[in-house]
Specification:
alpha/beta; Rossmann fold; 8-stranded mixed beta sheet; 12 helices; 14% strand
């Protein structure tokens, strides 16, 4: 379903560009309804050639938009909000922040406005339309949350969670991409050690991981239920699993996710 609204994506890096492309691919927006900003405007020349509006002027982009996506690094956010605060209208604008560790209230406090703010935490699989995106708010309307969900549904799967869990979502879903990639890499290295060429081992490990994930998603199954199907008494699978557990496999993953959540919580400096 197309919309007449305009959207400004402030800070058009990988996440912002992938969202823009997803919205157009889904037919919700036309390129001319999307404004992309970046300090180096020339870096967006390919997007401009495709019909997107590009600029380095964040305030102008906000003036022309109904929905504003904040997609900069945490340490860049306060400067950006100071730059656009005179252009933000409480009655007109919906803000969507994809900035780690920044609450909806932090955004309003920096702007000095009671504007509706939502948060979204996609991951880098957004580039292929397979993001796991968590969304949350503390003051946006049901209608606006529906809009936010529809935007991110174009680039993957979206769920709404309580805002206090958004930092945890960063660790599990955004950082989690790296954790699962590292586990696939480790599996491929194991495959090479037992006789496969490196490129074959990586392909085999990646497809096996994809199949494992799809078993859970498509069958609504539990990991242990699927593990039981492949482990037999005195078999090779249970021997390998137990060896991994003796070396802290599950514990390391849990501790890593917890550490990432703790780090994500302090990336944003509220005072500057």
């Amino acid at each position: 379903m197309s919309t007449q609204q305009h959207i400004a994506i402030l800070g058009s890096g990988n996440i912002g560009l992938s969202l823009a492309k997803g919205l157009v691919k889904a037919g919700i927006y036309q390129p001319e309804q999307i404004t992309l900003t970046r300090r180096n405007e020339k870096a967006l020349s390919l997007m401009a050639d495709k019909g997107y509006n590009v600029t380095s002027d964040n305030s102008k982009a906000v003036n022309d938009a109904d929905i504003i996506v904040l997609a900069v690094l945490p340490q860049q956010l306060n400067k950006l909000l100071h730059e656009i605060k005179s252009s933000v209208w409480e009655q007109k604008h919906l803000l969507i922040s994809v900035v780690s560790g920044v609450s909806c209230n932090d955004v309003r406090r920096q702007l000095g406005l009671e504007v509706q703010v939502t948060r979204a935490m996609p991951n880098t699989a957004i580039a292929i339309g397979q993001s796991m995106t968590c969304i949350a708010t503390d003051n946006a309307s049901v209608e606006n949350m529906s809009i936010v969900k529809s935007l991110f549904d174009t680039v993957g799967v979206t769920i709404q969670i309580n805002e206090e869990l958004m930092t945890s979502a960063t660790a599990l879903c955004a950082c989690g991409i790296a954790f699962f990639l590292r586990s696939i890499r480790a599996a491929s290295q194991g495959g090479t050690e037992i006789g496969f060429h490196a490129h074959d081992a990586l392909k085999m490990a990646a497809q096996t991981a994809k199949g494992a994930a799809d078993l859970l998603l498509q069958l609504s199954s539990h990991p242990e239920q699927e593990i039981d199907k492949v482990t037999s008494p005195k078999g090779c699978t249970i021997a390998g699993l137990n060896e991994m557990e003796h070396n802290g496999f599950s514990s390391a993953m849990i501790k890593g996710i917890k550490t990432s959540a703790e780090k994500a919580a302090v990336l944003y400096d509220k005072e500057n």
